[in-house]
Amino acid sequence: MTPDSTQPDATAPEPVTDETEYLRALVDDVQYVFFDFDGPICRLFAGHSARKVAEEQVRWLEERGLHGLLAAGVRGEADPYVVLAAVDERHPESDLVADLEARLTHEEQKAVLSAWPTAYADALIRTWWATGARLAITTNNSPGPVASYLSDRGLIDCFTPHIYGRTQNLHLLKPDPYCVNRALLAMGADPARTVMIGDAASDYLAARAAGVRFLGYARNERKLRVLQEAGAEWTVSSLAPLLHMLAGGAR
């Protein structure tokens, strides 16, 4: 796993910008912070191609004579989660779906070894935790690989036991708010004092359905466009301003 060499000095003076005030208005009274995993915390498939994982899923189905389960467009899909969802839609809660989900979990676990930390994410998590905020993971990834990554980065204590990931009930993946609501209930969290950080439209929709605030992390223009089209109003292209704002307030 590659270390995050871009972490700033948390003791550096806080830049005073309009963005700082924008973020302060969103999170200043927040007590609970829910992170999506793949995106805001790391790029899980940075070194283990998601496209190849999706292609392998399709090949596995075809070898079993099950290619008819996938529409033509899905067969060329670069996202393994879309392939899994397409099969689940045709055969929900079947042994076939369970096997395919287990294979995806195995690929996620392999991907942990080459996952790329999102710039400033480690320091942001530690800073927020140090200020007394309670943190949770609310993700469509399997919880096992998530816990492995967080352990490798020395972050697991910031979240344990609140890691809410994919279950066998795939219809409850985001944009369904199930994982967000699980975190709210388990932590006794007030939705009005909770923010979720995610990078996908499904994250925003799940947060909205659960009644929690949402901050979109858009590392490129495509991500930004998708979030804005979904309705997300609060977005950042880097976690650095949020970290500087929190670090300044902690002093």
Automatic annotation (TrEMBL):
Has keyword Hydrolase?
A: yes
Alphabetized GO MF terms: hydrolase activity
Q: Which InterPro entries match?
A: HAD-like_hydrolase_sf, HAD-like_sf, HAD_sf
Q: Which domain of life is it from?
A: Bacteria
Keyword Hydrolase listed? The answer is yes
Alphabetically sorted, this entry's keywords are:
Hydrolase
> What name goes with this protein?
Hydrolase
Species in which this protein is naturally found: Streptomyces lasiicapitis
